[in-house]
Structure prediction request, 138 residues.
Amino acid sequence: MRHLLDTAPWANDALMPQVVPPRIRQLLITAEVKGLCSVSLLECAIHHRRGRLQLDGTLAEFFRRGLAADIELLELTPEIAAATNALPEYFPADPFDRVIAATAKVMNLTLVTCDRAIRDARFCKVEFYPFKPSRLKT
Prediction:
């Protein structure tokens, strides 16, 4: 495993693959196994409850579809939790972002993200792409 998916790229790939640029789609297709932090499931559940994640089916069905055979669910460990305290002071305060970035750092993975703040923090290796809702129209 060499890549860790941030929550948005994972959900976008599962729900709206057309918003993921071809360069990132190719990376996701060719990567043998990709990691996803288990906290991303909680983040999606919260977004769904608040109406920010619209699904055609149930949340459980989305999780089953989104956790394809080539996705390895990564659990929070004591080392990862401790690494969240090593993040730069200017790193986003969002606890999900902090756990995801710390996981990438501790496990030496490249984080696939569309979050500019994570990219700009330069805490872990990042494969960045800008999220463009305009891609939904194509």
Observations:
- The first strand starts at residue 3 and ends at 5.
